[in-house]
Design brief:
312 residues; alpha/beta; 4-stranded mixed sheet; 11 helices; 17% strand
């Protein structure tokens, strides 16, 4: 039987037949050989990255992860396909058992996720990320501390798992909100949730967890990459960021015009031309916005780039 493909896609591990269409996204199921990947580079402070899916329905124009698509056609169609790691929970359980045998008194530090969104729309149906959280919590049955976990997402779906999140003793949630203007969001990431929905999600997490119900997570808002916010929206947006204990800002990834390098996609480079008022003086715009964050959010930690993505 021929391997099913996506415009010529054939991975080393055969995919199953296309399971479904989720909106305009083609969804594949594939068994993973491993799930925990040694963290390097930008997030080298972690032990592992954990990506429940390959590909991402949000398909943001600037996303560097498109560079790691299986082939050029899938890079071009970033956002229109997702590979679902069907056996992820079983693999994670085995990999954590191996870790704790070697490191019984040292929980792993895990970043979820580096090249996908663990709470993309598909998660609302398949609940793969939820099962992974359950596996991480189950290590306590064997007397181990749960992993130190950072979750990176732009999705309000994360609020579904508050019952699990509050059981992690060391958890940071990074909510990605690159701009405070809906018009800009629609240009750069039209498939993603609204700014209001993301802010509401962080508010719900903060309001729903207290020290009597569980462990209170750390909350970051990552304005990465830092996209323009219209001047008329700027002050109101910054005021809303006070719900977090940390705000992280970062420039676009450099674009080296090489297909397998994690740089900003050409699609975003073209959209940037619409916002010449910001990008013609990008360094000034960045520094001006940073100064406003510092002056208007005295109780919030303001960090830049790599320095902002650790747990602490």
């Amino acid at each position: 039987m021929a391997k099913p493909g996506y415009e010529g896609y054939n991975g080393e591990t055969p995919t199953k037949c296309v399971r479904e269409k989720f909106g305009d996204t083609t969804v594949y199921a594939q068994n993973a050989k491993s799930l925990l990947t040694k963290a390097t580079g930008f997030i080298a402070a972690y032990d592992f990255t954990l990506n429940p899916y390959r590909g991402c329905q949000y398909g943001c124009s600037y996303c560097y992860a498109a560079a790691f698509s299986p082939n050029s056609q899938m890079r071009q169609d970033w956002g229109k396909w997702v590979i679902y790691k069907e056996n992820a929970a079983d693999i994670l359980e085995k990999e954590l058992e191996k870790w704790y045998r070697k490191n019984p008194n040292q929980p792993p530090i895990i970043y979820m996720s580096s090249v996908t969104d663990p709470y993309q729309p598909l998660e609302s149906k398949h609940q793969l990320t939820r099962r992974l959280l359950e596996v991480m919590l189950d290590v306590r049955d064997n007397g181990y501390a749960t992993p130190n976990l950072v979750i990176q997402t732009r999705s309000p779906i994360i609020t579904r798992d508050i019952d699990y999140l509050q059981r992690f003793q060391r958890l940071r949630i990074n909510m990605s909100i690159p701009t405070g203007s809906e018009a800009v969001r629609r240009d750069f990431e039209p498939r993603s949730p609204s700014i209001k929905a993301r802010l509401n999600a962080i508010n719900k997490i903060r309001q729903s967890i207290d020290s009597f119900k569980g462990f209170i997570p750390k909350l970051s808002i990552t304005i990465t990459p830092l996209l323009p916010t219209l001047i008329t929206d700027e002050d109101a947006f910054i005021q809303k960021l006070a719900i977090a204990d940390r705000v992280v800002i970062q420039d676009f990834h450099p674009n080296n015009n090489r297909s397998l390098v994690a740089g900003t996609r050409q699609e975003a480079e073209e959209i940037k031309q619409k916002y010449a008022w910001w990008y013609n003086s990008e360094r000034f715009s960045y520094q001006r916005f940073k100064k406003k964050l510092v002056s208007q959010l005295p109780g919030v930690e303001i960090k830049e780039g790599k320095d902002g993505f650790g747990y602490e």
